[in-house]
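User: Some background: our group keeps a shared notebook of sequences we're curious about, and every so often someone picks one and asks for a predicted structure to add to the entry. Today it's my turn. The entry only has the sequence so far, pasted here. Could you supply the structure so I can complete it?
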Amino acid sequence: MYNLTIYLNLRACFLLYIITGVMAVCNRESHLYITAPKMMEALSGSCLQIPCSFTPNESQEKFDQRREIFGVWINSSAKVSKNPNNVVFNSSKPVNLYEIRLIGNLTQKNCTTVFNNLHRNPTNEYFFRIENGPFKATAACNPIQITVQDSAWSPTVEIPADLKEEESVTVTCSALTPCPQYPPELTWNLSKYSQRQIEENTNGSFTTKIQKNITLSDSDDGFTINCSVRYPVNKGENVKTAETQQTLSVSHSPKNTSVSISPSGLVSVGSWVNLTCSSRAKPPVSSFSWFRISKDGDIKVADGDFYSFNVTENAEYRCTATNRMGNQTSEVIVLRIKGSNK
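Assistant: Of course. Here's the predicted structure to add to the notebook entry:
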């Protein structure tokens, strides 16, 4: 117990030291700021594109776009002079510790960068630095946290709410795309061939998606959409997969409305007959109505899915099932008395 207390105290002091150090760096006037996501996720063995732009603070040395500009990425610590081994990439060097490509135009203050072949690293904090002649500055206040995970992200299936029969809707399956250079492949059971779209989000990240327009019917209720994603890793030599399922819930009017009779066949005058009305509907049937057919038109005789009565003569009946989506009337059922000439 004593050793555990010492460990926890030392850990707290270490964290306080780190936090205090970062605050001290940021409390001073920084000479470089970047606009980039604070936290990003990547897939092990794949790449990550970091949208990035920078703004020099020219309080001392001037940033000059006419001079040669180099971009530098540093791991763990912003203090490159004290920790030169933390530099993982410098665009001035032909060979670097990390496989990184700076694809932004530094003369336009664009520092967009692609980290290739990423793997899990206990230290996932990175800082960007500019070296432009005498102007050398690190964006110490803008670290980027990169989390590398082994498993692929599950795709997202988007379906409009409150689906109704006969409506036309757009169903979308989308997947995170940390690296648009190697986008994921999406497939589903809605269509054998779907056109893949890669879209840039407002924060500079990317999303890959497929879409399909469908006109809904009652038969779609309960249908399960399966969408699978395949991420290429290790420069396309392998893949990592994930899957998402989502079941459609489609509201529809009553279907397959029918009447059953007991006892069946010819019946005797004075005997009791039971009629039952059944129907398939979503939401469930809210009301059943029974009608007797006459030469003057249908006459309503009862409500409810069950109708029992004493037989007096030949007759014909049908029922109507209703829910908030509509109604449906059954076929006519004929009641015949034994010995009747009709």
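Suggested note for the entry: Residues 1-25 have pLDDT under 50 and may be disordered. The chain has one helix and 27 strands.
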